[in-house]
Structures are given as C-alpha cells and as structure tokens.
Design a protein that fits this description.
With 485 residues, the chain is mainly alpha-helical. The chain is built from 21 helices and 5 strands. 65% of the residues lie in helices and 4% in strands.
Length: 485
C-alpha cells in the first residue's frame, strides 16, 4: 500500500508539473489565446457591460471571468486584463488539482483531470472560452469531495457537493456524459453492488444529478445554439447511427487518432487489460458503452470532415472522451506497477508527448496573430480607424483560421498597443451590405453603437466611416493553413 501511494504521488507530481508548464505558457501566449474569436468577444462584453457574460446559461464559467471583471473595476491596463483572462483558466485548474490532491487526498482524480487537459488537446489549448473545461473541473471537485472518506459529510458538505454538481452540469450539455460515466464507474468500483443497492446516499445523489441533468437539457433545448446541436440528436435514426462510423468526421478523427492523439491507444489498451485481469467486467462494459455512445453522438451531431481551421473547436468536443478512455488506466495502473522508476517513466513520457503537440500548435496561432497585427498596424499607420475587408472566405480562413472575431480582436490588439482611437476591422464577403456608419461599429454579429463600449478601454472614432478594402493580399498576410497542414 505504501508503494502504491508513493507511485500515485509521483504521477500526481508529474501531472502538477505539466499543469504548471501550461499555466506559464498561458502567460507567454496570452495574445494568441485572448485575441482569438470567442475570447475577444467575451472580454469586450465583460468590460463593456461591467458584469458577467454567459451564453446558454453556462453559469459555471463565472470562475474564469472574476479576474477580468475585478481588473476592469480597478482600471488595470488592457494588457494586464488579457493576461489575467488567459492565465485565469489554468489557475482555476491548478487550484482544483491542489485541493483534490492535497486537501481531499484524491490524487488519482487530479491525475485524470490533468490527462483530460492534454490527451485530446493541441490546437484546443488556444481556444480559452470552452465552458466544458470549467464544467469538468467542477465535476472533479464534486467527485473528489464525494469520495473523500476522511470525515463524514455534514450539511455544509452536502451544500458544497450540490453546488459543485450544479456548476459542473450547468456548464454544457456534453457534461452529462462524463458525469454519468464517472458516477456509475466510481460507485461500482468503490462498493459491492449489494451494498450500493442499499446505499441511500447513492440514490439520493443519483436523483439530484438526474434532476440537474434534466435541467441542463431543458436549458439547452430552449437555447439558440445548443438547440441546433440537439436537433441532430432528436432526428437520429438507426441509419444515422450506422453512418456515424463512416462519416467524414469519423474519418478525420481516426486520422488524428493515429497522428496526433495516438498516446491514448496504449493507455486504453492497458486499462482494458488491467480491468480484465482484475475481473472488473462491469467497469469494462461501462467504458465500452459510454465510449461508443460518445463517439457516435459527436459524429451524428458533427457529421462532416474538418480541416485544421476547425481543429481547436472539435478538440473541445472530443476532450471528455479522454476521461472515459483513461479512467481504467489511472485507477488500476498503481495496483499493477510498484516500480517507481517505471511509473515515473510512463507518466513522464505521456505528459512529454502531449505537451509537445500543444507547444507545437503555438507557432500556428502565433502566425495567425502576426496576420492580425499586420493589418491592425498598417491601418493605424495610414490613419484608418475602421475598415471592412472584402475577401474570399477560404482565403480569409487560411490567414485567420476563423474570421468572425476580427472586429473585437483588432480592438483588443490596438488597445494593448495604446492606439487612440482604436482600430477595428471586419472581414466580410462580397455579399455583405456596406452602409455608412460613423458613430457605430461592426461588431462580431451585428452593428452596435459606440456608446455600448467601455470608453476607458475601447475609445472608437465616432466621426470616421468605414473604409472598404478589396482582398487581403495588400496587407501582406501569410497563409496559415497552407504552411502548417
């Protein structure tokens, strides 16, 4: 038992080091992470509205917005706010890992959380605003506290447990899968079925979790974004289920599994072998059932193939699968391996491989940032504060991965550069309705009056109208995808 605890400690420390490195990278790459689509959109809204900004009622994301909101009220520099936003996510994960591992002595859950953050992540690291990540972290806090047997749970503990469960499940519809999987897997793994059947606490919390899951479903079903995704599930048929395995998305994911996420394969196989060796067939069945169901669900909701420009988005969707596939390995490996050097080597290699893929993605997103910087700087040098750039969608995506965030991205960048007034530009297609506006600006999805903005951070010109440019070539941007495919 002593060797097992020491080996768990070794793996925990390696996981903690990986998280520290990712936290440091979030500071180094704060521009690439915050001046990218959703992040810039959220920051502008938080600072301008001077309150939290949630989409689809994803309240669990409040924890990563507190820093920006507080810094805004204190009048800190925009550069400091962007750095706070970028690092805030990993500080939350880091604090959670420390609480889970050191306070509640559930280091294996902390290890699993760290693996979740890297196993299916490369480009996804640069997409900061993914409420699934916050939801998963709240979820692990729930499980770590629930299975902490050091002290009996008193009324305050139950309030905290229900709060963690609520914050985890309310973050995203996808949360229902990893939550349900771990709830069943961990309870079966920790208690004999007969004892579990008579456990009132298990049944009470099962009802609570089902209620919270149903609440999340109802919220998503009535929303504008999640409801579009759920419509694919509602329209599911036997035919679409079988087609999921041969869909363009499945083919793309299979290629990435072999060329990017391949380290999950030996982790999964080792977990299967250990479960069979220990005759834990119920747990094996749960991994197969939930793993297969999750794969089919993602491929039904997103049937089309995807390229590098959507990799960051789909990695967010695939990341919870890492929990399902890696759980047997993390919970069983320390029973099978007692050699400290072997444990050190295995977890060091896993972490090193995945960190390599994440660090390798930095150049791709830095290249994108350079394109953003080139246009923003040139417009400012020419005395142009507001611009519309008409460009072919494919050409624009090759330069910017995704373009809808450029109005707010350019405002953040020019704010960091201390341009006054700020520069903002929007990339549009040839069918975009161009009309004269001076005291308003083209935001990401609509036209907003300048008075919407927090003038302390976003001082836009209210006299100059938008200047229209044809094509991106004149700004000397460099194609991103062609170079890094």
């Amino acid at each position: 038992m002593n060797d097992k605890l020491k080996n768990i400690g070794i793996a925990y420390n390696i996981s903690l080091i990986s998280l520290l490195l990712l936290t440091l990278l979030s500071l180094v790459a704060y521009k690439e992470r915050t001046m990218f689509v959703d992040s810039s959109f959220f920051i502008l809204n938080i600072l301008s509205k001077k309150t939290f900004f949630f989409t689809e009622f994803r309240l669990g994301a409040f924890i990563t917005q507190i820093g920006v909101l507080g810094a805004g009220y204190l009048g800190m520099s925009l550069k400091s706010i962007l750095m706070i936003f970028s690092v805030g996510f990993y500080l939350f994960y880091l604090v959670a890992v420390l609480i889970i591992g050191l306070r509640w002595k559930q280091k294996q859950f902390a290890i699993l959380l760290c693996l979740y953050l890297i196993l299916f992540i490369s480009d996804g690291y640069f997409c900061t605003v993914g409420e699934i990540f916050q939801g998963i972290t709240w979820m692990f806090l729930f499980f770590a506290m629930y299975f902490n047997q050091q002290k009996p749970h008193r009324w305050f503990s139950h309030v905290l447990l229900c709060s963690f469960a609520f914050l985890g499940l309310v973050c995203h519809m996808i949360m229902l899968f990893p939550f349900a999987f771990l709830w069943l897997y961990l309870n079966v793994d920790n208690s004999p079925l007969k004892a579990l059947w008579k456990d009132k606490k298990f049944w009470i919390y099962s009802v609570v979790l089902l209620g919270l899951g149903f609440m999340r479903y109802q919220i998503s079903n009535s929303g504008w974004y999640d409801s579009m995704k759920l419509s694919h599930v509602h329209d599911m048929s036997v035919h679409s289920l079988f087609n999921a395995f041969t869909s363009g998305h499945a083919v793309t994911f299979a290629k990435l599994l072999l060329h990017n996420y391949w380290v999950i394969i030996p982790i999964l196989l080792a977990g299967f072998v250990l479960l069979i060796k220990d005759r834990k067939f119920i747990q094996l069945g749960l991994v197969l059932l939930f793993g297969l169901a999750y794969f089919v669900l993602v491929c039904v909701v997103y049937p089309d193939a995807y390229d590098r420009n959507m990799l960051f988005y789909y990695e967010n969707e695939w990341a919870p699968l890492a929990i399902i596939l890696a759980t047997p390995f993390v919970l069983q490996i320390f029973e099978a391996l007692r050699n400290k050097k072997l444990v050190l080597g295995i977890f060091s290699i896993i972490v090193a491989i995945r960190l390599f893929y994440i660090f390798d993605s930095y150049q791709f997103y830095h290249h994108r940032f350079e394109n953003l910087d080139a246009i923003t700087t040139r417009l400012h040098d020419q005395g142009i504060n507001k611009a519309l750039i008409v460009a072919d969608e494919q050409v624009a995506n090759n330069d910017f991965v995704m373009t809808w965030g450029t109005p707010t991205e350019s405002m953040l960048l020019s704010g960091v550069k201390k341009y006054d007034p700020l520069v903002t530009f929007k990339i549009v297609d040839k069918n975009f309705e161009i009309r004269p506006i001076a005291d308003s600006f083209h935001a990401c999805f609509n036209v907003l009056p300048n008075v919407f903005l927090n003038k302390h951070y976003f001082n836009l010109d209210s006299t100059q109208e938008y200047k229209v440019f044809e094509g991106l070539e004149q700004f000397s941007t460099k194609s991103n995808l062609e170079h890094y495919k």
